[in-house]
Each structure stands twice: as C-alpha cells, then as structure tokens.
Amino acid sequence: MTLWALCTFTLCTTAQTKIFNDTTYLQPVEVTAIRAADKSPFAKTTITQKEIQKNNLGQDLPFLLNQTPSIVVNSDAGNAVGYTGIRLRGTDASRINVTLNGIPYNDAESQGTFFVDLPDFSSSINTVQIQRGVGTSSNGAGAFGGSINLSTNELNKEKYAELNNSFGSFKTLKNTIKFGTGLLGKYFTVDGRISSIVSDGYIDRASSYLKSGYISAAYTTGKNSIRLNIFSGKEKTYQAWNGVAAYLLDTARTYNPSGTEKQGTPYENEVDNYTQTHYQLFYNRKLNNFWKGNIALFFTKGKGYYEQYKADEKLAEYRLANFTDGTTIITKTDLVRRLWLDNNFYGTIFSLQYKKKNTNYFWWWLQQIRWQTLW
What we know:
mainly beta
C-alpha cells in the first residue's frame, strides 16, 4: 500500500536578486569526490529537485526512489510513512553506502539506514544520485549493492518562502514550511525548513508522529566557501515491524501482533521513540586553476528507546529477586520494559583534487578518518 493523496497544495513566493558573474556562487559546499562524474563508467541515476518535489507528499525517502531501476522498498505501517526499508540490486540497506552531502549516513553500529529518523528530509534535497553496484564508494559502509548520495548544499541565489501541505488515506497529514534568504551582501545565504508528518498507518495501530527541522548557512567568496548544516528529526512510531502471519492475510491482513501480550486491549504505548541530530561543517578551498581541496567535519547524536509490554516474564532474566507472597514464591510477572540507545558518531573527511583540460584526476584521495563511541 502506498499513500493516496487526496489533496496537496503549495504556497510559494520568490524574489529576484542581482545575478553575479562569478559562477563560484553556484558551487555546492560539500565533499565532491563522492559523486560519479557524467562520463564515469558506472550505472547511475540522478534525480533532480523538481522530480522529488512532484512526488513528495509525505512518504519516506525510499518510496520517492521506488521507480528507480533496481530499487525495491517496503513499509512497516503499509502506507510509506514511518519505518520503511530499501533494497538495491537485491541487497539490504547495510550493504548500500548512503551519504548526506558526502557525509556517511549508515548507522555506525548496524550499518543500516533509518530514514524515519529524518522525516521529510526529501523537502531539503537538491539532487539524489544512485550508483548501482560498487561505483565510486570510497567511504562509510560497504557498497556491495550500490551507493545513494543525497545533496542539500546547492546555493540558492533568490529569496523564497514555501508552505507545503498534503493529506490522504489513513489520516495522513504533512505540513512543511521552507524559506531562504537568497544571497545577502553577495556572499552569505541561509536556508531553513520545519516539517510535521502524522499518520494512523494501514496496519493496526501503526501510527507515526514525525517532526523535523533543517537550517543551513553558507559563506562563499571567489576562492573559499564554508557551510554549516544542522538538521534533526524526532520520530514516535507504534511498532509494526513483526509482520502479518501468512494464515491471516486473507482474513486479517492489517493485524499487528505488537502490544498484544497485554490481556484485553493491546498495550497502547508499544512505541519506538528516537531523536537524531546531525551537525555538518564544510570548507572548500580553490588553491589555483588546477587544484582544489575540501574538508568536512561531522557529528551525529542519537538518543531514544523502544517500549514493550512483556507477559509472564521470569524475574531472574531482568536481575530481579523472586517475590514472596506469604507462602507463595512468585518467579514470573507481567512488566513493561524500555530498551535505550544513546550513541555519538563523529569524524572528518577530506580530499585534494587536480583537474586539467577537462580531465579529472583524483591525485590524492585521503581516506576518511572516523571515530565513534557507542554506549
């Protein structure tokens, strides 16, 4: 099942600003060595911002890439909102190298990708490049299936403001506000976005409450450019990842076993609750007509939990002492548990490139250095 949009409307305003001759203003401030060039011998697809916006009604990012060759997607909630999965050439997300402006996005612990932690990130994307196969992957998770490179760092010369809204089946509602200052004093620009997505889901109780924000500021001159990105997403989704038994597909295909260990009505707070915040700092330097270099620093902070109702559990498994009620020794009970995840992922990526006579040589490509702490 995919999201059926009953209505979508957009309010958009733009203002013309002075156009400068120096094309440096149009250069994205990011790690450029990750993407394949036009003549690179790789099977690749590039999706533009207009193509993304045309289909961006609140679905998670994998469903916006669904019509791309070799892509297969799935949705826990059944309506493309909340937890979704993606496969490229048959391989799962842990074998797909995903980058945000050249920064690794794959989870530092599992190497998977969880786009539910970045709700409506599609509204901030300028282009997406999908490389099928090993491609140019030179950082992060292994790219046995391929690479997906997301870019948000294009410089917007004109002022703009947008209000995007859509609603559809299963009480799905998306609200997005975007703005950009355009070029201020020839050198400085700021872009921002806030978003909210809610849905009841197709599967029973597979509700989603998603919020996100994005802010980016850039300063660029003829030879130097610097950009700071801060974006964050908060998701609270009812667990629906256990699937439906085959024998129920004909009679109760929306059945959700999560929360049903509780007698009577299912446990109402069997949820996944997680917040992820990204900090990215880029510096690009044009050394001369042939050499240019860039460096990026990044920090990703994640914190949250999922909660479950567990029936008839042994106290000893939770390091709890048995309870004595008179002459009766109680060794099992019903309980609610929360499993927490608190992790930091940070590091740097840098490169030096040489280009002459329309031939691009990566004279020196320094491997990224990454540190991570998980607890």
